[in-house]
Amino acid sequence: MTLQNKPASSHFPLYRLLVDGPGEIVVDLDGEQLAAHPHETVASVMLRHIDPSQYCRSAVSGEPRAPLCMMGVCFECLVEIDGQKNQQACFVRVRSGMTIRRQFPRGERQ
Ligand code: FES
Fold first, then answer.
1. What atom of ligand 1 comes closest to residue 90's alpha carbon?
2. pLDDT, tens digit (0-9, with 9 covering 90-100), for 64-84
3. Which residue from 13, 24, 29, 87 has the highest number of Cβ atoms inside 10 Å of its Cβ?
4. Rounded to whole angstroms, how far apart are CA atoms 57 and 61?
């Protein structure tokens, strides 16, 4: 198991924690184990760990998409959480053992 508390790529993270430590819980993002803190939303954990241009792609145009408003308005943060598609990542707090899958146009995986 790989626990990370730093971005996997060299991008500048949009979010950083105001607390120290790797995080008390582990979530699965596309098969990669990530450390998170219980107060975080799925969107904030993802934006700390992955390049925003790799967050997901539009099912219509195929363009890269990423969370914009972080308050449930724009619907740009949709992900699959524990097998349920189209969940607003900015509204859902992480739980230990949660599985998160980025969404891409049909037949396409990152
Ligand atoms: S980031 Fe806008 S609805 Fe989630």
1. 4
2. 999 999 999 999 999 999 999
3. 29
4. 8
Cα 52 to Cα 65: distance, rounded to the nearest angstrom: 8
* Ordered domains of the chain (ranges, CATH): 25-102 (3.10.20.30)
> Which whole number is the average pLDDT over 95-102?
96
State if residue 75 touches ligand 1 by the CB under 6 angstroms criterion.
yes
Q: Which two tokens stand for residue 23?
A: 């995080």
User: What's the predicted TM-score (pTM) here?
Assistant: 0.82
Q: Which numbered atom of ligand 1 lies nearest the CA of 72?
A: 3
Q: Has residue 3 got a pLDDT over 50?
A: no
Our answer on whether the CB atom of 44 is closer than 6 Å to any ligand 1 atom is: no
